[in-house]
Structure formats: C-alpha cells, structure tokens
C-alpha cells in the first residue's frame, strides 16, 4: 500500500504541489513546512531531501500528529508535473504492439531489436500537450483517427547523464500514468513519397493540444517494487481494449533511462512514457469520438480518466 501520492492541484492562486494521504489532499509546502515546495517541479529538483520530508509528513498526517495541517476541500487535480523539460516516449516497445502495427501496414513484424544490437527508440511530445486527470480532451478538427495508448510513465528525480544500467532506476522519483493520444491519419504526409525521409508528421500526429493526458498523481518509486511487474489496462466507455503487463516491454525502463541518458541529460521532472501494448484503435479500425470516456489503469499507481470532446 502506498504511503502517499504527490500531485498538483488547482488553488485560488494557481497550481500548487499537493500531498495525498489516504483520500485527503494537503498542500505539500504546508505539510512539510518547506515554503519552497510550491510546485511538484520544485520538489523534484530537491528530491534527495524532499523524499524523506514528504514521507515523514505523510506519516504524521496518517497518525493524526499534524493537527495544524488541514486537507483541501474538493481539490481539482492537474497533470502532476507542470511543466517538465521533456516528455520522452518509447516507440514500438511491446512485441504484441509491434506485431499489431505491422499487420495494419501489411509488413512482416521485425525481430526483437536486442537480437539486432539495437537500442531503445524514443520520440518527444511537446510538454504543453499535457493535460490532467478528468480533463476534457478536444479532438483535433484535422483528424478523424485519434487513437489511445496506455503507458506506464516514469518521473525522473535526479539529473542523469551516462547512467549505467544497474543504477538507472535510482534516478526515478516515482511513477504515473499517461495516454499517448495519436492522430493516426497524420502519421504520414499524403503528398510525400513513401520513400522520402520527410514522410512522417510527428508533430501533427503526437503534439496536438491535450494529446498527452497524465496523472492522476505520482506514486513514489519506493512504493513500487519493480516497474516490470505491473498490470496495465485501458477501457473506452467501460469496454476493455488493452489488457497487458509491463513485463512484456521489449526494452525495460532501466534500459530506456540508461540509453536516453547516453544521448542527453535527463532532468528532474522529465517524463518517460515507456510504450504501449497491443489493443490500440489502429489495430481494430476503431478511433475515439466526442463523448468517449477513456480509463487507463496501472497496477499500484491508479486510474487516469479523460473524456473526449
């Protein structure tokens, strides 16, 4: 059972870092008596010290020894981190999803990348494409094929550069959930030849407003024994579409962190979306429409809910 959850809530004066203990949300700066902990990004930038202060504050609240700390009434939750320096998204990182997408394209599935000596492959989403739990996501007018993608998401808690594989998870502050929404009909630019290196439209496909729902909170890494041993599911209007397990990732989270940090520096608050399993709409010929309710669940983390508009 998790000891606390870290989140961002909307206060009268703007977004604030919150500490969730049980079902109650408390202002994180007030609960820890650290005025500098106004935002989750502030906390993550001081994660070495903050992790103990948050846990101690949560224990006092749970034991009713923090009588001066009052819960926030009916808090509105936002995306947990506003705004990280980068959102890194693993592509083609579940074998069943690779096979699913190959079938749609009428090509043979590729072998396990490890067997070819390949490294993890990522793309980047615009950080301002994020939206929070329970937010309404306006489907872009230019797309008729917006798809869902359930993803376990790691939150970086320490500056990371050239991190060895065996130490990679030490750089994770916690875990949240993302839905990597994708405009599939924007994957390729229609007038451009399939042989052109400029065929793909990653911005149009992946970075429209609201294209990255994230939340509802961050569960500390200390409360997740192994990120490769978690169930992951997604429903559209209570009909299950994705039902898988993080053990089916091709490249583990540790491999992803180690590789990414060999290419650039990772900073506190950066998010790594670790890939999605089979069951996306593209493989079924189904796509999201206004009014659809999408729920993403990750074992030990929680449930992210958004409504399409």
Describe this structure in words.
The protein is α+β, with helices and mostly antiparallel strands. It folds into 2 domains: 5-78, no CATH class; 87-308, Fumarylacetoacetase-like, C-terminal domain (Fumarylacetoacetate hydrolase, domain 2, Alpha-Beta Complex), CATH 3.90.850. It has 7 helices and 18 strands. It has helices at residues 28-32, 40-44, 47-62, 95-105, 202-206, 253-263, 281-284, and strands at 5-11, 14-21, 24-27, 76-78, 87-90, 122-125, 130-131, 136-137, 146-147, 150-156, 172-179, 182-183, 212-220, 231-236, 239-245, 271-273, 293-298, 302-308. The strands form 4 sheets. Strands 6-5-16-10-11-13-7 form a 7-stranded mixed beta sheet. The chain has a 5-stranded mixed beta sheet with strand order 8-18-17-14-15, with no helix packed on it. A 4-stranded antiparallel beta sheet has the order 3-2-1-4. The radius of gyration is 19 Å and the shape is globular. The model has no long low-confidence stretch (mean pLDDT 95).
What about the largest sheet?
Answer: 7 strands, mixed
Count of distinct strands? 18
Helix content: 10-25%
CATH superfamily of the largest domain: Fumarylacetoacetase-like, C-terminal domain
CATH fold type of the largest domain? Fumarylacetoacetate hydrolase, domain 2
What proportion strand?
25-35%
DSSP helical segment count: 7
Question: How does the SSE layout of this entry go?
Answer:
Layout: E1 5-11, E2 14-21, E3 24-27, H1 28-32, H2 40-44, H3 47-62, E4 76-78, E5 87-90, H4 95-105, E6 122-125, E7 130-131, E8 136-137, E9 146-147, E10 150-156, E11 172-179, E12 182-183, H5 202-206, E13 212-220, E14 231-236, E15 239-245, H6 253-263, E16 271-273, H7 281-284, E17 293-298, E18 302-308
Parallel strand pairs: 5-16, 7-13, 8-18
Antiparallel strand pairs: 1-2, 1-4, 2-3, 5-6, 9-12, 10-11, 10-16, 11-13, 14-15, 14-17, 17-18
């Amino acid at each position: 059972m998790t000891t606390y959850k870290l989140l961002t809530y909307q206060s009268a004066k703007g977004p604030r870092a919150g500490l969730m203990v049980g079902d109650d949300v408390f202002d994180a700066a007030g609960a820890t008596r650290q005025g500098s902990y106004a935002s989750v990004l502030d906390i993550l930038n001081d994660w070495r010290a903050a992790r103990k202060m948050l846990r101690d504050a949560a224990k006092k609240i749970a034991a009713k020894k923090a009588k001066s700390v009052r819960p926030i009434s009916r808090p509105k939750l936002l995306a947990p981190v506003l705004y990280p320096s980068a959102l890194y998204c693993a592509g083609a990182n579940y074998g069943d999803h690779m096979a699913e997408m190959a079938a749609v394209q009428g090509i043979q599935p590729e072998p396990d990348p490890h067997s070819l000596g390949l490294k993890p492959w990522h793309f980047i989403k615009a950080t301002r494409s994020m939206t929070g739990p329970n937010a309404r996501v306006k489907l872009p007018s230019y797309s008729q094929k917006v798809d869902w993608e359930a993803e376990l998401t790691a939150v970086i808690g320490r500056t990371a550069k050239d991190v060895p594989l065996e130490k990679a998870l030490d750089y994770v502050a916690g875990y949240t959930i993302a839905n990597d929404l994708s405009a599939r009909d924007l994957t390729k630019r229609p007038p451009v030849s399939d042989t052109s290196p400029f065929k793909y439209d990653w911005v149009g496909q992946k970075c429209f407003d609201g294209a990255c729902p994230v939340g509802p909170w961050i569960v500390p890494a200390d409360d997740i024994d192994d990120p490769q041993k978690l169930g992951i599911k997604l429903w559209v209007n209570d009909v299950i579409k994705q039902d898988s397990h993080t053990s089916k990732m091709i490249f583990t989270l540790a491999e992803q962190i180690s590789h990414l940090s060999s290419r650039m520096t990772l900073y506190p608050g950066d998010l790594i979306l670790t890939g999605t399993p089979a069951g996306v709409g593209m493989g079924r010929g189904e796509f999201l429409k206004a009014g659809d309710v999408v729920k993403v669940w990750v074992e030990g983390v929680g449930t992210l809910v958004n409504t399409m508009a």
